[in-house]
Amino acid sequence: MEQYLEAGKVATAHGVRGDLRVESWCDSPKVLAELKCIYIGKEKTAYKVQKGSVHRGMALLHLEGIEDRDAALALKDKTVYADRSELPLAEGAYFVADMMGADVVDADSGHVYGRITDLIEGAASLLYEVTGERGSALLPAIPQFVVRTEPGKALYVRVIEGLLDEI
To answer: Which of 4, 74, 114, 162 has the most crowded CB, counting CB atoms within 10 A?
Structure first.
């Protein structure tokens, strides 16, 4: 499992002292604001978080070494990563990244429909994109279909006829 997980994106600078406005991909921007360290860009350059807060649905971060607006703007649009050991995880919960590539298996027959290739925020529930040999389909992440989840390995399902037949 990956040590560093995508946690957001630098939206822009905030003010003139080098603060960053960061779009959070976590459960809440508060998660980013409370981290001790973040990693930015493909190189995953480490930055110590000196101060974090939440403002208008975004995390505001002041990072060690980023002291002016120009330095902050140089990080605009870069992906923000967090060390999985610093991220809170509720009992029974898992990180989305840990399910990517997991097999989707029929809980009764053991038939493998395909692999999880994406997780989409739907209006009523999360949706797993399941890709098989003949295409892909969306599977609602609801208790009526999902029997058991083994992060990093498999998602065991019991689906209605026709839902995953096309893949």
So the answer is: 114
